[in-house]
Amino acid sequence: MIRARLADAALALALPVLLLAAYDGWARTAGNFFFPPLSEIGATFAAEWLFTRVPTDLLPSVGRMLAGYALAVAIGVALGTLLGLSRTLSRALDPVLQFLRALPPPALIPVSLLVFGAGDGAKVFLIVLGAVWPVLLNTVDGVRGVDATALDMARSYRVPAHARLTRLILPAALPRILAGARTALAIAIILMVVSELVGADNGVGYTVQLAQRGFDIPEMWAGTVLLGLLGFGCNAIFVAVERRVLHWHLAVTGRATHARRP
């Protein structure tokens, strides 16, 4: 078991290490101002993002992203459940929802600044507007995909509506809901950066853009690396939580066995 896990880790790290080594070798020989070697990027990263900018830029960005993501998941699950249970409500709201879904969130930055000002509200609003759709649509599909026979049996045994919702419908739809939530997490990180490019005075996106405008290339690359690490870490945490929450589903589908192969 341990040997297999070490082999999997080595296989997963092989390509990134080779790519980094190839880039560093090329950067040292090319001497291109816009592509500094890894040692310079690493030194800037350690100096700026391990200590100095964590409370002033990293934590505010993560806080806004988590707030927007949490709201997007809550709204998506609640509204998606209602639309999945009521086709009449779904038909009534479909034109409005399709219109809002078609709006690209970055195009609403001026509107959000006018409505919410230059504070965190505008940034959270953009994150919610972009991240809510995968959760909402997957929730609708998950609720509508619940086995009709199981629903009929629950009704025949006079199971209360709230019990059917919490013990049958939502658990059955949970795999699709979490699939949408995972997609929404990546969107939330992207929109976190986009929302900080206009009308912001802190944040990772703001710092990267400021470094680019000031031709501080190592700092720009350090911020970019941080965003990649942030996305990787958030996804790893989400996958760990998903495996724990959906252990029953993974066992049934065989994914858990495959993931822990000897």
UniProtKB/TrEMBL annotation:
Residues 58-238 form the ABC transmembrane type-1 domain. It is a multi-pass membrane protein. The chain crosses the membrane at residues 66-85, 177-200, 220-241. It is found in: Cell membrane. CDD domains: TM_PBP2. Keywords: Cell membrane, Membrane, Transmembrane, Transmembrane helix, Transport. InterPro entries: MetI-like (IPR000515), MetI-like_sf (IPR035906). Signal peptide: none annotated. It comes from the Bacteria. Its main location: membrane. Pfam families: BPD_transp_1. The keyword Transmembrane helix applies. Belongs to the binding-protein-dependent transport system permease family. This is ABC transporter permease.
